[in-house]
Structure prediction request, 702 residues.
Amino acid sequence: MTTQYDQQKLEHTPWVEKYRPKNLDDVASQEHAVRILKKTVLLANLPHMLFYGPPGTGKTSTMLALAKQLYGPRLYKLRVLELNASDERGISIVRLKIKNFARLTVSNPTAEDLRDYPCPPYKIIILDEADSMTNDAQSALRRTMENYSLVTRFCLICNYITRIIDPLALRCLKFRFKPLDNANAFARLSLIAEKELVRLDLDAVLEEILVVSKGDLRKAITYLQSAARLGASLLAEHSISVNLVREIAGVVEQPLLDALLEAIRSKSSADIMAIVKKVVLEGWSAQQVSDQLHDLLLLDEGLQSEKKNAIAKLLFETDRRLNSGTDEHVQLLNLLLQIAAVV
Amino acid sequence: MSLWVDKYRPKKFGQLTFHPQITDSLKSLAATGDFPHLLVYGPSGAGKKTRIYATLNELFGASVEKLKIDVKTFTNASSKKLEFNVLSSPYHLEITPSDMGNNDRVVIQDLLKDVASTEQVDFSNPGKNGVKHRFKVVIINEADSLSRDAQAALRRTMEKYSANIRLIMVCNNISNIIAPIKSRTLLVRVPAPSVKEIGDILLHIALKESVKFSSNDPEKLRKYVDAVARGSAQNLRRSMLTFETISMQLELLNVDNLSSATIVLDWEVIIQNIALSLRRDKSVANLAKLRVTFYELLSHCIPSRLILKTLALELASSETSHCRELMETAAVFDERLSLGLKAIFHLEGFAAKAMVIMS
Prediction:
């Protein structure tokens, strides 16, 4: 039964949360992982697991759905410990909180729960965003994972598997979550659009959303929701256009890019300095600009491979520097001047 | 008596002049009574904060302007007490976690969770169109200087408590924001206003404050205010401050004298002099002499990366033939500055390298 309160609360929930898959069948794409996990639900036996993959591919969603399917809503609270980067996860927490939870024996499920759910006799500890755990904390987990494996299973979730220390990674069954393919993501998006009564001009809009979100379903849903909200009162006909989507995603406009390319081709440093100043003043992010330059230049048929090679190197260097928090203006100017010298 | 910047700060959507598109978008977001997490970015003085407050005003009414400052205390992992200033109204909080340096993660973890896990119960103010607001807004300033740890801590909090909390992050550039955060927010880009838009605002203020000009020829007036805008690099806040300073200093503004329209700050003059001396005298002795100047700048709290950037751009624009090499070096040293600790090494390193390139 949904009360008015719940109803209102649901309205204020972002669609990303609202449409989080409730069971494994709902998980879009990732057939491989889902197939294996479904088997484990039937057998009610779970190894330690490690999910890794880019953001927005459904790692957390899959794990939460799996846990819900195994235990049902009541038992879930008792049996699942979810820790993420927003919780303190230093070595002391691993030693106290995680260890204490891990060594508890499991309570007997009620007959009611047993009827509806498999309720396997172990607990699950979900360590979300495990790549932000320190190495010390990770090593402290090693023995804990083995000692209490009878009553506790671990599930580590991370973006970069390289940041998980080997001893931990080797104790787990690894699942790689790949970026969503367009067909699945498209189906999911159009389902949401339908349920939320979003009126779309064309399928082209959804396709555009998929292009700008690059396989990140969460991003795609956020864009869809933002576009729907903006579109609701902005346009008389209550629909979302392709341009609106591009604007929300912060994609650099084509004319500006053309101007950039022209400045590069002219090889005049004064021109380049002027255009970079303009780009920075308009607030475009240097990372977005270099991303789009990457697409444009490396797919350009007219450039020789050696030149592309050199450009790719430059782009890589700039991207790395931007990631370590350098000044956008200096880096972007440098990038363009260097590219101009190569082209 | 308040500064013109504060006096003429628009409070509602209707008073905002430039970027009508962004204003309309925010307005339609506010009209639905709800919005996703926002990430507002753009150069400083472009009106990011003003727009955010206008949005809050639209959502919650005038009571968001009743601000008070609380001091919260936290204890970090090594049980050290930390004090942290929080600016708050009944409907929102404004924090600058980067004030805390490396401890920003503790603030994010404790404060946000604290706010996020309590639900807003709001009977008195049903808001416009009868929507009750069940969420509190948290404005995070300088989000680009949040540490990686703190950003990672934000990720799940943003999702888990999304029914109770909305984040608005404000930053200058989004390269430092990690991808998972970007994929959870709606990006709002606020470009710097054009020279003409700043000019319009300045003229409007001049009229209101009855600033005296030497001639009232509209074309000349326009040229003058444009010079003010250009002189402050299209930063609206700085143009307004400059304009106020000029009109305080001079009884009568001479519109024909455009050089009076710009105020070059002391440190900028010093950096220009450094650039000049670097080009003129490429010797070790000069380098040693410049060290004193660099130290002087640093001790006056001019950020080291700003010094490097200004110096590099100054050099590059005057030495066009070596522009590329200069910028390449600047990019390298910029990275070292942001990773390293001792700024003077890198500044001197850049100066020495620039001398070599130019000779």
